[in-house]
Amino acid sequence: MNAPDAPAPTAADRPAHAASPAPASDELRAAFSEAGLHAPVTGGAADADVHIGPLAPADARQLARLIRTGTKRTLKTARALREICAGHRIELPGLRVRQGRITLGPVRVEDAARLVRVLGAVPPPATRPAPPAGADAAFVGALLGHVFPEATGGGTLSVSVREEAPGLLDLSA
Question: Which end of the chain is more exposed for a tag (fewer CB within 10 A), N or C?
């Protein structure tokens, strides 16, 4: 038995386009309101800049608490990472939390080579000499990019060699 032909879809049958996201100033204003904070928030539809007006001291303290609570895990992880790296004499001066993610930033090739060893890509330092001062940045970067996901359980790391400073690698978040 043949099924009857279905009618062609009409405009009412098609899904409506998703509305464009609310301006950032509206989102921030709503979040402040939901948290019981009172501060004027201004910004146009284009949101080139969003401005937060003066906050009462109590609201400023509450906002600081909310930010710390919301980022507690990430900040704690970043602090632990700094301590671990310091224990292995790995300098990551650009390690920061930005937009909720840990950004590792620029690192000297020698420190990146130590990080590769700590992550288990090569034998520990006791059985292998330190990398020479002129270690190949591209090789160390590729090795770090390869070993990082294995050591972290899947997190990827973008590594690039700085052309203007070949002794430095830039590590992503």
Answer: N
DSSP lists the bridge partners of residue 97 as 102
Single-letter amino acid, residue 96: R
SS3 string, 132-157, reads: CCCCCHHHHHHHHHHHHHHHHCCCCC
Measured distance CA(110)–CA(113) in Å, rounded:
5
Token pair in block for residue 33? 């309101």
User: Does the reported pTM lie above 0.90?
Assistant: no
Ramachandran assignment for 83, one of left (phi > 0), alpha (psi -120 to 50 degrees), beta (any other):
alpha
* Look-up of token digits 């309101």: 33
- Burial group, residue 137, by CB count within 10 angstroms (0-12, 13-18, 19+): buried
Measured distance between the N- and C-terminal CA atoms of the chain, rounded to whole angstroms: 59
